[in-house]
Design goal:
- With about 160 residues, the chain is of the alpha+beta class.
- The protein has one domain.
- About 15% of the residues lie in helices and about 55% in strands.
- The strands form two sheets. Strands 1, 2, 3, 4, 5, 6, 7 and 8 form an eight-stranded antiparallel sheet that branches. A two-stranded antiparallel ribbon has the order 9-10.
- Strand 4 and strand 5 form a beta hairpin.
- The longest helix is centred in the C-terminal third of the chain and has 13 residues.
- It is globular and about 55 Å long.
């Protein structure tokens, strides 16, 4: 049974936070998690900020503790032979993966929406230096179906 199907690739420190780069092997998503403790602007009530700071990171926080998460790319399984001098992303079964980072914010938002609301299979296709991300939707998640029904029930006429 797989309990944790993700791996922390590395940690780094931003000016204002400690960040972790995480690879999720189930959803094939690459994201950053931010952790911040500050006493400058405490939020007295639990609060969510959709775009915080210059990097426009979404933050959840209360009092002095803040957590944030930002999708930065996807990982694709690498069938090619790997050089021994390069760092490789490997899961616990020994499969190797390659990271593809997004440059466009809209693409990351769309990918995050699909991963949260649908059962997806993400595949990477490389041909002549061009990279294509193929997202096969296999079905809606049950929670997403329930939330759509609740929204329809409480819609104003």
């Amino acid at each position: 049974m797989k309990i944790f199907n993700w791996k922390i690739l590395y940690t780094y420190r931003l000016k204002w936070a400690l960040a972790f780069r995480i690879a999720n092997f189930k959803t094939k998503e690459l994201y950053d998690m931010y952790f911040l403790i500050t006493s400058v602007y405490p939020w007295l009530l639990p609060h969510y900020e959709a775009e915080f700071g210059k990097n426009k990171v979404s933050l959840y926080g209360w009092l002095l503790f803040y957590l944030g998460r930002q999708t930065v790319g996807v990982i694709g399984q690498d069938e090619n032979e790997v050089d021994s001098d390069k760092k490789v992303i490997t899961d616990r079964y020994g499969n190797t993966y390659k990271a593809y980072l997004f440059q466009d914010k809209e693409m990351t938002k769309r990918l995050r929406y699909l991963i949260r609301n649908y059962h997806c299979d993400i595949a990477i296709e490389e041909k002549d230096g061009e990279v294509t991300i193929v997202n096969r939707v296999m079905g809606e998640k049950v929670i997403f179906k329930i939330s759509k029904k609740i929204k329809r029930a409480f819609r104003w006429s």
